[in-house]
Amino acid sequence: MFDFFVEQILGMQWLNDLVWYVLINYFHADQNSNWWSSAHFFFYDTIKITILLVTLIYLISYIQSYFPPEKTKRILTHFDGFTGNIIAALLGTVTPFCSCSSVPIFIGFIRAGLPVGMTFSFLISSPMVDVASMLMLMSFFGPEFAIFYTVVGVILAVVGGKVLSIMKVERYLKKYDGAIRDFYAESEYFNQRQRLNYALNDTKIIVRKVFPYVLLGVLIGAVIHNWIPQEFILSILGNNNPFAVILATIIGIPIYADIFGTLPIAEALYLVGVPAGTILALMMAITALSLPSLIMLSQVLQRKLLFLFISIVSIGIIFVGYVFNFVF
Question: What are the distances in angstroms from CA 175 to CA 25, 113, 269, 299?
């Protein structure tokens, strides 16, 4: 039953077969053609991600309605030390899906006087790890990859926040008096109808925001999978290059996308044989260290702390990537 759930419900193997059936029977597609393989990749992944995106975001947005920023702050004030970092990282898994949504909440936590280490654990975890991303990863790469990604993402958030806490970086914070986005602070007191409407509204906003990146990711994935020679990709990101994980991390930082936009690219790299840890490093760098979020963080972090944050997270991502390549 679990295999059926992963392959047919999350993986949508039926959709893969259906897209080929339509292309072959109605458009006389040739499965050995790069053009038709690209068309199949595009339609299959676009439809699949859209279905998962709408369904999972609706469900997770409903859960998020129970954890508005004000309630999250109240929860975090009851913890400190290493336990606080763990709770902050776990709370990050039930909050917004992208780094540019997480940064305003992070700024709010800083302004509220929460311990810096806990706020950084939240900041690292929030865009990188959540239930929706775990299920999406499971649908593309299987349960082992998804669970490992989620676990190491939370560990990276906890350790990164704890290291920054030990280094006493509070003196490198800037005073920020600008406005920050209102994240439905009143949702804590919603009734069930309001929560369902909140989830529907949030789904519309998020899907509208991320869908262009999904389409871009699918197009890039189709090109990688069908047009760039496998030998060329593996010469750069394959096992024979000892610096592949480092290179993937560096490539990922300037890119802005969330987990949904990176999945088609990751899938294409996986299909041509790029090691799982290298793909993991790319995905984590894109989601945790995107350039727009770093620009937003520069408003509240002095340059030294910003570079320290980037360095610690990058080192953690690279370490995890090499470990993952070794394990898988």
Answer: 63, 12, 42, 9
Residue ranges of domains in the chain: 2-327
Radius of gyration of the chain (CA): 20
Task: Collapse the DSSP code of 176 into the 3-class scheme (helix H, G, I; strand E, B; otherwise coil) and give the result.
Answer: coil
Report d(CA 22, CA 79) in Å as an integer: 56
Record the tokens describing residue 294, joined without a space.
Answer: 């770093």
Distance CA 286, CA 283 (A): 5
Q: What is the pLDDT of residues 141-172, one digit of tens each?
A: 888 888 888 888 899 999 999 999 999 888 88
| CA–CA distance, 152 with 283 (Å, rounded to integer) | 13
- pTM listed for this prediction: 0.79
- Residue 83 is encoded by which pair of tokens? 């336990």
User: What is the Cα–Cα distance from 90 to 261, expressed in whole angstroms?
Assistant: 23
CA distance 321 to 250: 13
Name beta bridge partners: 301: 173
DSSP string, 171-233: GGBPP--S------GGGGG--HHHHHHHHHHHHHHHHHHHHHHHHHHHHHHHHHHHTS-HHHH
* Contact assessment for residue 237 and residue 244, using Cβ atoms and an 8 Å cutoff: yes
Q: How far apart are CA 119 and CA 105, in angstroms?
A: 9
* 43-82 residue pLDDT tens: 999 998 899 888 888 887 888 788 777 777 778 888 878 8
Stretch (H or E) spanning 87: helix 81-92
Q: What is the pLDDT of residues 13-52, one digit of tens each?
A: 899 999 999 999 999 999 989 999 999 999 999 998 899 8
